[in-house]
Amino acid sequence: MDYTTGINNKTLKRNVGEVMKQYDPNGNGYDKKEIKDMLKGSVSIFGKPFITNKVISEVQNRFDKNKDGIVSEKEIDSFLKKNYNINLKDAKEMTVKDLANEIQAQDKAKKKK
Fold first, then answer.
1. Among residues of the chain, what percentage have pLDDT more than 70?
2. Which of 4, 31, 62, 86 is 20 to 30 Å from 107 at the Cα level?
3. Nearest to residue 51, comparing CAs of 21, 108, 60?
4. Which residues of 24-49 are buried (b: 16+ CB within 10 A; e: fewer)?
């Protein structure tokens, strides 16, 4: 699976930290609306958003481990460390494309084992 497919070119070139700050300007974590805005603003097919409410809920449920309705940076950091050995601090300095490619490469390597 190519994780960059559907991510618009403008977003692919931006740093992860910039994108995160854009959709969570107050830094208090991502509620369902902010997740929806981020996904629909960043991911499209033929220039139109294709993210469904079901996908948005799945993303929120996957990251929101304490089930408080907010995906915190701590939860994102924990997910990245556990699954990809990547610190959020480092991920924020990467472009969206580079982070997606790194995650994809690790997923591919795991499947080969």
1. 90
2. 31
3. 60
4. beeeebbbbebbbbbbbbbbbeeeee
